[in-house]
Amino acid sequence: MRQFLASCGIALTLALATVTGAEAQQPFAAAATVNGQAITNYQVQQRAQFFTLLRAPNADFESAKDVLVNETLQLQAAREAGVTLTPDELDQGMVEFAGRANLTPDEFVAALEQNGVAPETFRDFVRNGIYWRRFVQQRFGPQSRPSDGEVERALARGDGSGGVRVLLSEIALPLTPENQAETQALAQRLSETIVGQAAFERAARTYSRARSAGAGGRLNYVPLNELAPQIASQVLTLAPGEVSEPVNFGSFIGLFLLRDLDESAARAPESLSIDYAEYLIPGGRTPEALAEAQRLRDRVDVCDDLYGVAKGAPEGTLIREVRATADLPADLRQELAKLDEGEVSTLLTRGGFLRFVMMCGRVSEPSEEAFQALGQQLLNQRLTGYAEGYLEELRADAIIE
């Protein structure tokens, strides 16, 4: 975060260049008044700079002014309704916000000041948000809370917010005792030099040994909660078109490019288990073992077909399990996340065996935690709707100049 804020000088210069001469010369003149309460040019400039540093929307002067008009209306309504906020509660809000960047409030404020943003701008942003949230809860909370029946019906429909999906491209570099150093060096070089999706796809076709290599490493949408934690944590820090650091799964090193992140089709959080089969083929990643895996793939369509193939094979050749996603080893979890029912991966190895991994199905069982989480989400959605509608009423009734 420190590095990010320090790198925003150019962006701030561009943002400040959009401020007119009159605004720059009269910082404490009113940019707008809301029911007689002035919002100064200085406050608007500061908020625009603050949003620029956060890479948030509304970072230009006019948009930041509109945000402050809304916040002024919200603050007026909250105080008129008797909403209060103690200094300790405000401090806690600032701690929570700064903590999102893994900083203390003092460190966060210092980084802001280095880039021309006053501490009061941060404080007012947090304060205004807390006041409005408390007002909305107080005014609309009771009528917004869903009944148990409404939550159950939403679960049955598959509504919810626990299923953020990501659209990735991958490069998978198999690891063997003989190629460890060479493969690690290649992965680091690719991570540091690949720029953009086209370059990533060329590298995937050249180096990757995943089943997606022929498609330039492109994967379909994958639920974020099914990815291995090492990947999920990196994906959330990437912007579209950026490449992850190399991730060592033991059997292979993975590189991932984020193409898109989709929160619109999310589902209720669930306790997810994976039904999968694993058939062990002697020889590791030798050409003979890979050829045998292809012959096996041509023979089976569903997991149950593997029982016939394994008849007479040594004990342990075929493994069939249903395991919670969270309990799966990272490399297996990552491969299964990419597979649909009946699809196969042959990327992984174990002790001289090539692992023929087949997805049999996913088993979802809504838990008590899922029920509570979805109930909270429905409440939040309704509160958001009420809040947006009430803000429109406030604007319609206000005197804004």
In short:
Helix content is 50%, strand content 17%.
Q: What features would you highlight for this structure?
A:
401 residues, alpha+beta, Triger factor/SurA peptide-binding fold, Chitinase A, domain 3, five-stranded antiparallel sheet, four-stranded antiparallel sheet, 16 helices, 11 strands, 50% helix, disordered N terminus
How many domains comprise the coordinates?
Answer: 3
Structural class: alpha+beta
Helix count, per DSSP?
16
Reported for the largest beta sheet, the result is:
5 strands, antiparallel
Unreliable sequence segments:
1-24, 265-271
Q: If you average the pLDDT, what whole number results?
A: 84
Distance between the termini: 37 Å
Could you say what the CATH topology of the largest domain is called?
Triger factor/SurA peptide-binding fold
Number of strands: 11
What's the CATH C level of the largest domain?
Mainly Alpha
Helix content: 40-55%
Q: Any idea what the radius of gyration is?
A: 27 Å
Secondary-structure arrangement, i.e. CATH architecture of the largest domain: Orthogonal Bundle
Order of helices and strands: HHHEEHHHHHHEHHEHEEEHHEHEEEH
User: Which range does the strand content fall in?
Assistant: 15-25%
Describe the structure.
By secondary structure, the protein is of the alpha+beta class. The chain folds into three domains: 2-144 and 381-397, Triger factor/SurA peptide-binding fold (Orthogonal Bundle); 165-262, Roll (Chitinase A, domain 3); 271-365, Chitinase A, domain 3 (Roll), CATH 3.10.50.40. Helix content is 50%, strand content 17%. The chain contains 16 helices and eleven strands. Strands 7, 8, 9, 10 and 11 form a five-stranded antiparallel beta sheet that branches. A hairpin with a 3-residue loop joins β5 and β6. α5 packs across α8 and α6 (87-99) crosses α8 (119-144). The longest helix has 30 residues, at 368-397. The radius of gyration is 27 Å and the shape is elongated. The chain starts with a helix and ends with a helix. Mean pLDDT is 84; it is low at 1-24 and 265-271.
